[in-house]
Amino acid sequence: MEAVIPIIVTALCVYGLLKRVNIFDSFIEGAKEGFATVKFVAPTMIALLVAVGTLRASGALDALAGVIRPLAEKVGFPVELVPMGLLRPVSGSGATALLTGIYESNGPDSFVGRCASVVAGSTETTFYAVSMYYGAAGITKIRHTLFSALLADFTAIVISVVTVGLLMT
User: Fold this and answer.
1) What is the pTM of this model?
2) Can you say how many angstroms the Cα of residue 55 is from the centroid of all Cα atoms in its chain?
3) Residue 78 lies in a domain
4) Is 91 a domain residue?
5) Domain coverage including residue 83
6) Spatial CB neighbours of 99, under 8 Å, sequence gap ≥ 6
7) What is the pLDDT of residues 100-153, one digit of tens each?
């Protein structure tokens, strides 16, 4: 399995040689385009990372989760998933840390652990994806996309709990 990447690179080089393409010049041109993309997207990514760090360090996430918890309890939604549901659209690594905590406190095969696993697999780091792809394409009007993507994340979280509930009974 370790040989997959070298095999692909070798196959691309052989293909380039057969097509009489100057492989090194093509590589250098692609690297230049990559740096241009990084230069264009870096400010957006830095702003997003600062926003995530501020959100987590300020306690705003915990405060928002505290507001949502009573409603989650009333409708039978696992309250342990509330912080993960709030953080997942913003930070994949933060949500993964919360997922690990859920596994440690509840177990991976518990109802909450399975729900958290499905949530992790069926939601997206929405803010990252929108800022990265739209930033790279130079699109600035993201209002409808962001609303739709967050609605899709919310739907995925709710349906994850419903599906796991149906499959575990």
Assistant:
1) 0.69
2) 16
3) yes
4) yes
5) 41-168
6) 84, 116, 117, 120
7) 999 999 999 999 999 999 999 999 999 888 888 887 788 888 889 989 999 999
